[in-house]
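Hello,

Our lab assistant flagged a job as stuck in the queue for most of the afternoon. It eventually completed. Since we weren't sure the result was trustworthy after the delay, we are filing this so someone can double-check. Below is the sequence as submitted and the structure that was eventually returned. Let us know if re-running is recommended.
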Amino acid sequence: MSATCLFPLLTQKTHLGFTLLEILIALFVVTLGVTGTMHMQINAFHAQRESHYHNTAQQLAAEMADIMRGNSKQMHSTDNDNIFLRINYQSASGATDKPIGRCHYISSYCTLTESASADINTWLNRIRHELPDGRVRICRDNINTHPNAPLRWDCTPAAHSGIVIKIGWSGPYDDNNFSPDVVLTVAS
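-- returned structure --
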C-alpha cells in the first residue's frame, strides 16, 4: 500500500483559516486604498474651494467694472483725480469693515465722488468677507497678455494702457507674496 492510504491525515492539506501574513497583507492593501481615497477627497475639496474663490473674484471684478462704467465722471477725469485708480487694498485678519458713509442711506445728499466712495467701500468689505486675505489693485497697466506670463501686482502704465482690476487671495500654500488670480481689463 501507498503511504497516502496508510496515513491520509499526513498528506492531506486542510485550510481552516488565514495565516497572520495573509491578514497583514490584506490590511495593508485596504489601508492603502482608504488612504488614497482620502487623499483624493482632500484634493477635490481644495480644488472646489479654489474654484469657488476664483468665481467669486471674477464676479466681484465684473461688479466693480460695472460700478466704474456707471460713474462716467470719475472715468473721464484725469488719472490723479480718478478715485477708482487709488484702490490698492489688502484685507487683514481681524480688520473691521470700511465705513460706507451716509450715501447708501440718504442718496440725495451725496456728491458723485461720495457715492463712488461708498460703492468702493461696500465692495472692499465684500472682498474682505468673501476672499481669504483678499487683495485688490485697480490701475492703468500695460499688462502682458501672454498665456505663460506671470501676473503681478505692480502697474506699468504706458501710452493708451488700459485700466485693470487685479484681485487675488491667499491660498493654503501661499505666503504673503501671492500674485493676482484674476485680472479684468475695464477700459483702454
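-- support follow-up --
The delay was a queue issue, not a problem with the job. The result is valid. The chain has a mean pLDDT of 82. The two ends are 104 Å apart (CA to CA).
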